Amino acid sequence: MIQYRNYIVIISFFWSFVCNAQNNLKNIYFSFGLDPKIALIGTDNKDTSHPAGLNYLGKFGLDWKGPWETFGYLESYEDIGYRGIGIGQNYQVFIGRLEFLAGFDWSIISRKETTDHGLNTHWQEYLPSLGVNGEFRYHFNQIVGIGWQANYRSRPDLPSLLGRLSGYINLYIKI
Questions:
Q1: pTM value?
Q2: Average of pLDDT values for 70-93?
């Protein structure tokens, strides 16, 4: 069953696409973001402590005519062997060039694990994780924008199942 979880995420994304197709697609966007806190100082909390590294987030989104967007994403923090793939929806509010978003997502988290006293390394998949998102974006023009995203996510891969708050600075390109 574990090897099929990524397919469930992909199928769910397309299911969301089909459900929203009657709302008329307005834009498709791609974004790339970094977590500035982890890039500059790393992590330091009760469960984990790691030096600075790159925690990046790539997103592909469908912006509908109406207040909703649907997105898929891939997050990676290779320095600690963390990957996440997920889908979600955000509610949008526009005020001039500013866009405010709030929504949710669910994902599959994978962690790199070492076995046999460090001789073998493999990726271990975990149960789905739920997240709540808040974001604001500034659109320079019809194509390019920047954004700040906050995400609170359940983390079944850590000793404490309490969520983690992350923040990203994103560059958006619409097509």
A1: 0.78
A2: 88
